[in-house]
Amino acid sequence: MLPLRNGAWKWLAVAGMMMAILSGCEPVKMGVLNPKGPVAQKQYDLIIWSVVLMSVILIVVFVLFVVILVRFRASKLSKDYEPPDVEGNTFLEIVWTAIPVLIVVALAVPTVTSTFDLEKSPSPNKKPITIEATSAQWKWIFKYPEQGIETVNYLKIPANVPVRFKLSSHDAMNSFWIPELGGQEYTMADMPMFLWLEADKPGKFIGRGNNFSGRDFAKMEFTVEAKKQSDFDSWVDHVKKTAPKQSEKEYKALLKPGTVDLKTYSSYPKSAEVKEPNHGGMEHGGMDMDHSKMKHEDMEGMEDMPGMDHDKN
Predict the structure, then answer these.
(1) What are the residue ranges spanned by the domains of the chain?
(2) 29-72+87-119: which CATH number, 1.10.287, 1.10.10, 2.20.25, 1.25.40?
(3) Quick check: do 29-72+87-119 and 129-274 share a fold?
């Protein structure tokens, strides 16, 4: 058996790593690569289109690179060879100017179109349900204004029904994300943001806070269950009959920094409702020009963040 040449072990190691990665591709199909609703599907299609287009460009560049190396390598050319002068070649200048423009257009048009489409209900012919999602250190609070109930760290939604999330934060800025149902959106204090999502069939998913917000930010996960409309209605009725009512004191205690278990309430105080800014705001982005103002008590818990030194006025 001949000894491996110098450097061969390095390439064998790289090949082994690639095989190990590729052998695990099937379980990787999750999150954004496993869309379970119309919003996630549209975003998935956009990702695939971008990857395919960029892959084609990469292959063309590599092929041209190899062709040029082979065709114009020094060993085949005479010593007095001079490359042709292409300065002022109108055709070539048009080609290498037009190609990047076409690439940008091919990426920009579907991206802009999809972005504006996602500002609207994914199923305009269906009546939506509104859910208020509030991030607090370090928990998620979900209020159902139409049903008058509240859950903590878990969420139930009807399948095949568009859900209009009204997002806010009690303290630190965070990001609301259910990867299999759609992209993420920020939660900010005193600046409601909006996000449309929909599950196309019953199922269970994982949601999370996707923005660093202090000591226990990694624990800000919540479960999401999409149920048939009849099952969702039955669950709401069961909560109203069996779950306790939430008092003002309990709600204020819930907002204090810390982790809590799953909780369910058959009602919540008026102060828990997400307030609209007086000057209005744009949906899905809430781009009103007044910056959110954090109250003194809202800064509680932020001092646990590494490298953060907060002054108290």
Answers:
(1) 29-72+87-119, 129-274
(2) 1.10.287
(3) no
Look at 142-146, 155-159, 293-297 and tell me which has the smallest mean pLDDT: 293-297
Digit-coded pLDDT (tens) for 108-156:
999 999 999 999 999 999 999 999 999 999 999 999 999 999 999 999 9
The answer to whether residues 129 and 161 touch, using CB atoms and an 8 Å cutoff, is yes
* Cβ-contact 180, 31 below 8 angstroms: yes
Q: pLDDT tens digits for 75-95?
A: 666 777 777 776 777 888 888
pTM across the whole model: 0.72
Architecture, CATH, for domain 129-274: Sandwich (2.60)
d(CA 159, CA 95): 50
Rounded to whole angstroms, the Cα distance separating 13 from 10 reads 5
- Cβ atoms of 155 and 223 closer than 8 Å: yes
Among candidates 261, 173, 258, 203, which has minimal Cα distance to 40?
203
Tens of pLDDT, residues 245-267: 999 999 999 999 999 999 999 99
Q: State the pLDDT at residue 130.
A: 96
| Unique residue bearing structure tokens 């809590």 | 260
